[in-house]
Amino acid sequence: MGHPRAPEPSSNRPYLRSLRAAALATGLTVFGPVPAVAQEWIGTFGDWNAFRFVEAGRRVCYITTTPLDMEPKGTRRGPTYVRVSRSGDMRDVVSIVPGFTVEAEGMAVITVDAAEFRLRPSPEGAVAQNATQDAAMVRAMIAGTRLQARATSGRGMTSNDTYSLIGFTAAQAAMSNSCRAAA
User: Fold this and answer.
1) Best CA proximity match to 106, nearest among 164, 165, 150, 72
2) Tens digits of per-residue pLDDT, 21-34?
3) What does 40-56 look like in DSSP terms, one character per residue?
């Protein structure tokens, strides 16, 4: 009551497919169908929300935010967000979901203030090249104020989305603390 909810089941399927894609790309478990995942809201921290759930006896936590501004205007896209997740030994896994499939041969780019990071395409968006890049992005996000995400679709449309980092540090700390607790 009064707190944000994860997307409703009708819109949650693309979101969970992207979680599954990130899971496969990062070694997390593959999440089950929508009804099998009971998400718990941890809190809202500025422009970021934190959630957790248990999958196969393992606690999975993530923080997410939606864009403040999306370019180009007027294009139809699916759910669009940045997510940082953790489970078990996987720490602070960064992914973007631009609302379309990123061009297979292309790269997505996240810019945090002056730091630029090239991500590789995944089925629902883009993920870091490796854990070292994830850690560098999270450090930049903690120190930063704004995140720009650019990606090109398989149809040649390039998106440029702007996200706030207000509350990121507190949300990341809450996510970390929540996932330290026993599942």
Assistant:
1) 150
2) 444 333 333 332 33
3) EEEEEETTEEEEEEEET
User: 58 or 116: which carries more pLDDT confidence?
Assistant: 116
Phi, psi of 146 (to 5 degrees): -145, 145
Architecture (CATH level 2) of domain 9-180: Sandwich (2.60)
Domain boundaries, the chain: 9-180
Distance, in Å, from the CA atom of 21 to the CA atom of 165, rounded to the nearest integer, reads 24
What pTM, to 2 d.p., does this model score? 0.77
CA 137 and chain centroid, separation: 12
Per-residue tokens: 6: 């994860």
52 sits in the region (left: phi over 0; alpha: psi -120 to 50; else beta) called beta
Angle at 84 between CA 83 and CA 87, to 5 degrees: 125
